[in-house]
Amino acid sequence: MTHAFIKHPIALATMATLGVISAVAAPTLAGAAKVAGTYAAGDFHNHSTCSDGAVSLQKKVKKSMDRTATTPWGLDWFVQAGHGGTGNRNCTLAEDATFATPAYPLVTDSAGTVLGPQTRWQQSAPPVQPKGSVSGTPPNQNMWRWQQIQEFQYPLMEYLAAYRNEPLFIGVESVVAGHEHTSMGVITGQIPAAVYTQTLPTTPGYTPLGNANALSMWQYCFDRGNSDISRGNTTTTSGIGNNWDCSVPGSLNARSPDWNAAAAKLNGANGDNGHTKTVEAIKWMKAFHPTGSYYVPAHLERAGPFNPAGNNGFNVEHLRNFNNAGPDVAFGFESQPGHGASDRRGEYNLRRNAIGTTRFDSIGGTTFGGTGVYAAQIGGVWDALLGEGRNWWFFASSDWHSRGAFSVDDRRSDNDFWPGEYQRNYSLVRHGGSRMNPQQIVDGLRSGNTFVDSGQLIDRLAFVACASYPGPATRTNAGVEAIAVEAAQANRDTDVAGCATMGEKLKVRRGADIVVAIVVRDPAGKSYSPYSFPNPSLLQVGINQPLDMPVLDHVDVVQGMGSGFKQPGASDYAGAWPDDWVNRGNPQQLRTLTSVPDAAKNLTAAVVKTFNSATWTTVAGQPEWKKMSFRIPAVVASQYVRLRGTNMPAAVPFETDVAGNPLSDLWTNTGAIQAKNSSAVEFAENSFLRIPCTTVATNAPDNGALFTTNGINGCPNHLPVINGTRMVGLDVAAWADLWFYSNPIFVEVAGSAAVAGVK
Prior knowledge:
By secondary structure, the chain is an alpha+beta fold. It contains 12 helices and 31 strands. A hairpin with a 4-residue loop joins strand 7 (259-260) and strand 8. Helix 3 (145-164) packs antiparallel against helix 4 and helix 5 runs parallel beside helix 6 (316-325). The relative contact order is 0.12.
């Protein structure tokens, strides 16, 4: 049995369904009905051989979007996004005939050998010459990402969008000046509507109808990995090509001491100067592509604290600066990173980052239930930003590169999951019943109407807050639950006067009651996990639950109070998260926020309600659907509420504390840890593993054998062994410990703090 939630493409939404939505819709507070839309699952951060990934663009799209027995996780929309900078491999070449198409057939050399996606650009047939100020030695010279996108990646993605009849487009994981990495995109020019109605070629070659020139220009102008000075031309002196000028309206540009006149752009400075350049990049996006751009820092805790002399992480003030510069461009973060099957979950680690002669932890040290400390820590950075009333949203990504030691086609992994296989961003895309386009998808991300799920814990969510006043305007809990049930089962948001959902602001008079309703679907059947044996983490507390049949244990409601925006230069605007956060002395206890600077915390944030099987109810005859509600009585101050949920009860050893908070993932990370002030290894591999995996498999394949199905019924052979016992780590740790997060609903109370960042 497979999950009931494997859906047909959103592009095939029926008009009958839309008719139902229109019939039940009521006017919004502003009086204008919302455009109909549905929650659609997607991924915007992943890699191919154009950067440091293992597969072609064609294979990555197919493995991410197909809904087949071997890839049942097919997404609804997909963004190809490799690293900024350079690459020397031709990712448009297919691996074999199964990925070939009429316009992009399998390519061979004169000897008949297949030229696949590992082939260098200059060794392609015919050879491709990189442009600009070229680095490297022929035939392995590097091609700038701007050229790859403009001339090769975008045309192929446009063709695949038409050929597969799916919503695909191009973004980038930028190498950030002053920091580490950011998922970003400029969609102007990409995938015009005529792409889907054209007659596709039946012979090799494809001429795109649209373009990614704007994204290519951004890459040239602002990516730290791009030191090209050619202005996007064939050579640095030819004047033939794009002749880009990276000036930003209202900025110093040529009057800046960092301006490179020949390149017509700011030099790629580090630290504070690099951060300034990155803020300029966001200003450029706001000025020229205000609705067609997004800028979402990726795995932002991984590289440690901000380094004024280098390129490391992001402190809270940098996020504020980004949001101030372009609130419709920089509107969130990936605080739930990819690389979930890695030996260091999310690739977060203690002592990971060398700054000078000292090694610093990833911020928070590790992930917590797969999520970075900025969002996983209640009252931390995310709550600090939400408490200001900022439009700062939570996202996740696959960060797909490879399966590590396994074939990319194996269902096991000690590195990454395919886009959609494990983490999914469910964003409300207002497509009006037609095929989704890039603008609608980016609008959906910008709206904040997104929830994130790992491991197929849930696949539907309605989260609604409605105002209730005495008299005719009163609302009952049951009435608001009914609104949420209808929305969840239709896979859409609500459009009811006096109510709001994720990413929205409910404006109320002082003294109003707020009725909050939550409906989730915990889908029956099997997840996409290849493992059918009992979850080892839950066996510790006597729960026998197969890894491929997770059960939602509880839903937490987090509430925080509003304060209004903090101002640059104020004492509570900037501050770094303290190093050495993980409590190795007591693995069952989280640290308090005492040492966290005021700028990076919101002490009003707390779990105010927890729902579980004893306190939620199910929809009649449909036990997959859980519904729950509560009231916030007589509000006098602006605030927000957000959700998280998990398959882990409270007090699961090495997974959750007694309050149900996720503990550090140190206890399932297998990687070695270096010393604080040297290159020596202080803690060897597997030093901190604590959860035994004791179920003996009768069908566990050898590590070197290709395994492409599911149902491994015992601990797989690639788990580490300590004193004769296999221990939980790698992909088993990820499938064991599942969480979902919602974005917030804001309540703005008349006469209280303004929720200025949210419409």
